[in-house]
Amino acid sequence: MNPSTEVTLVDVDRAVADRLLQLAKRDASPDEVAPPLDGPGWNLERTAWFYSYHQAAAGGLDGPAAEKSWAVFSGSLIAGSVRLKRETSSGTPSGETGIWLGRSFRSRGIGAAALDLVLAEARRAGLKRVSARTLAGNAVAQRLLAAAGAALTHHADGTVLAVVEL
Ligand SMILES: CC(C)(COP(=O)(O)OP(=O)(O)OC[C@H]1O[C@@H](n2cnc3c(N)ncnc32)[C@H](O)[C@@H]1OP(=O)(O)O)[C@@H](O)C(=O)NCCC(=O)NCCS
Asked: Torsion over CA of 24, 73, 111 and 21, rounded to 10 degrees?
């Protein structure tokens, strides 16, 4: 990434969601963007999930979904999305995050910058811990999370749990 290209987080309204979906369709795999759902590609079900997810997440950590999503911008270009969800299962105020970028925006430091911004949002919201789950085969995600200070734990189901203490 050009060091002068600023990475910012932008709220996801309908127009931004349209642009994010276009990016996802041309520059990412559906399973990087959406949970496993029946059928291949961006079928109606997956597209409906995408819009309703971002609409619900517009309510923020204190809204009904206890979750906030943002579009990640690199300068004026939409590059991907990141989310933060409040977790209520532990006594420590905690959150869970996840991120995807378009392929053409990867490996340029944008993910690291976006994760820093989300962790700053989590701190501002009073969270003390943020976790993320990825797959054992996803070395880049593990490097990203480790570089942000996460402790990584490998699980027998092939997932890796990353926990950042804030
Ligand atoms: C995971 C993802 C968000 C990382 O963002 P990114 O902008 O590509 O990552 P960065 O350029 O900020 O690099 C983060 C770390 O990974 C390393 N890295 C980046 N690309 C790499 C590559 N192709 N091979 C090896 N290491 C790589 C960087 O060196 C850096 O590690 P370091 O700080 O130890 O040097 C992005 O690759 C992506 O969207 N992947 C698909 C979706 C996904 O896997 N999401 C993660 C779910 S938790």
From this structure: -10
